[in-house]
Amino acid sequence: MTSRTTTALADIARHGMTGDAIADDTVAVLRRAVWSQGNVTAERADEILALNDRIRRPSAEWTRFFVEALTEFLMTTSHPRGHLSDAQADWLLLRIEHDGRIESTADLELLVYLIERMDSAPLRLKDFILAQVERAVVAGLGPTREDGEPEDDRFAAGRITTTECAIIRRVIFAPASNGPARVSAEEADLLFRLKDATLGAANAPEWEALFVQGVANYLQGWQGQSMPTPEEELAHTEFLAQRGGGVRGFLGKMVRSSPQGLISTARGSGFGRKGLPKRDRVAEERADFVVTGAEQQWLNDRTGQDGRIDALEQALIAFLHEQPAPRI
Question: Which superkingdom is the protein from (predicted)?
Fold first, then answer.
């Protein structure tokens, strides 16, 4: 039996639907109806999800409403508040994924926003989001590509878009990811896979900085004490934008002369953990920033696979070479 609340929402939406889209003024009416009692009930959450299944071309207004309503429902039903449970994650994925995939930008935005907003969430939710992005980049299919036509090179397989860079950055640095401002080994591996899948493509201008900063975060052991300040991020981006002179020009010449020269230079310039005085906490914190032998081997295993260091690998090692120890 259909409830009065469910019927009311369905009736409102029916009058505002045109094909697979919904009018913004209808979304405003839905918003008032949902929030009229001050909270989002399970019944309303179910109806909103059902409506979202019918909206294949979600507007920005619908996406905002959908994300706000479902986030509020999951937030208020989480115990403790702000910690998304396994059961909640299972319920949500059961409602929005089909054969391990999602096709709606609204669904994707909801998942990303939950990772950002919640204090904690099951890691498989983050992994699921990143798998959707990887599929879009490699195969050219998925919610980040839905507006592209097959002949549109901007959405071709084998390139990464600005939207996809933004999603990756939001997810790997989100509070409910592996750690706030901390990139995991799995996430660093993903960045390398995406690099290899998009080499030479007309990628988004944000991609190089994301790859370099993300992998460097993993290698240098940044434990998420704080996000980079706007000034620090700008300085990093300006460093990566430099061409020609300086350390990057020097290292680039070494790469052209010897593929292994770059790694060797990095080793000689301070990579590797040194002996620490006992109980020297400041030195220990600084040592975490230095690339260890195991991390260096991880990097070696992923660079120069075809006998040459590609441009993004050059940028990564130059960035590592230039970074000062963190302020303690």
Answer: Bacteria
